Amino acid sequence: MLTISIVIPVFNEAPVLGLLFAGLDATLAHLEQTYGPVEVVLVNDGSADPSWSLISAQCERDARYVGVNLSRNFGHQLALAGGLESARGEVVISMDADLQDPPEVLPQLVAKYREGYDVVYATRLTRGKEGLGKRVSANVFYRVMEKLSGVAMHKDTGDFRLMSRRALVELSRMREVHRFLRGMVPWIGFPQTQVFYDRAERKAGETHYPFHKMLSLAFDGIASMSTAPLRLAYLLCLSLFGIFLGYILWVLYDHFVHGSELVHGWTSIMSAITIFGTIELLMFGIFGEYLGRTYEQVKQRPLYIISELKRSSSAPLAPPSNP
């Protein structure tokens, strides 16, 4: 017998929750019949709409559902961490609530686990109606991340994945405030593989990852997985120093050999000062970003706060033996 937890972060998803519950029904029945008890952990990440009311009602109707209500909005990655650490199954699957991650793929993930894999990624064969710009930028980002971090990452994968209990225990030991699970999970190691699926369109509601949030997630990934930006800043400063030194030597040569007046280069000097000043401010910004993250990490605040937990007394799963 195998116990399975399905973790789903929820933020203002009231329009799609009814569809999600209906879409999960057949898959949950299949998983229970084939493998054993299943629970669905719904994490309400400070929704401003009736999402928590709908989650609470579903928990009362169906003992397989568990509701985790966070005290405020902590963000998708931290809400996902809260759900993963609240799950009790031998294997834990994370997916989104918008049904772009189809429930029909869940049995394929579990089948790969039974073959001996601790982490199974759901990889997109198609990305729906996403624009060319987003597809290209995502492809470039994952290639850059692999080079910077030294960790192999599957492109076209999001947070739709299965993890074994032992992989989840190791992930729970990583207490980064700025989390990038798409890099942290491959870093853990253990046998890993992937299954492929066609990504569907969002069934209702609006995306919660507009461009600025995707950009923020990308920077979180780079900053949390690599110190390459700091090294790049160092190399850039050395390069600029070499250029500036070369310029000074050229000015002195031009003055003493050709007799040129030193004031002749006023425009270029002012341009160089402006350019170097701008780059210095950029370097300070990079250093400050890493320093700020260090400051937030050393405070050792909890990653999330749970204000309410809804779980039926007849819930099908017992707590894991190795939490």
Task: Give a verbal description of the structure.
The two termini are 19 Å apart. Helix 1 packs parallel to helix 2 (51-61), helix 5 (132-149) packs parallel to helix 8 and helix 9 packs antiparallel against helix 10. This protein has helices at residues 14-34, 51-61, 76-86, 106-114, 132-149, 165-172, 181-188, 211-225, 228-258, 266-298, and strands spanning 4-10, 38-44, 65-70, 91-94, 119-126, 157-164, 192-198, 306-311. The chain has two domains: 4-226 and 303-311, Alpha-Beta Complex (Spore Coat Polysaccharide Biosynthesis Protein SpsA, Chain A); 228-298. It is an alpha/beta fold and 323 residues long. 30% of the residues are buried. Strand 2, helix 2 and strand 3 (65-70) form a beta-alpha-beta unit.
What does the secondary structure layout of this molecule look like, with pairings?
Elements: E1 4-10, H1 14-34, E2 38-44, H2 51-61, E3 65-70, H3 76-86, E4 91-94, H4 106-114, E5 119-126, H5 132-149, E6 157-164, H6 165-172, H7 181-188, E7 192-198, H8 211-225, H9 228-258, H10 266-298, E8 306-311
Parallel strand pairs: 1-2, 1-4, 2-3, 5-7
Antiparallel strand pairs: 3-8, 4-6, 5-6
Helix pairs in contact: 1-2, 5-8, 9-10
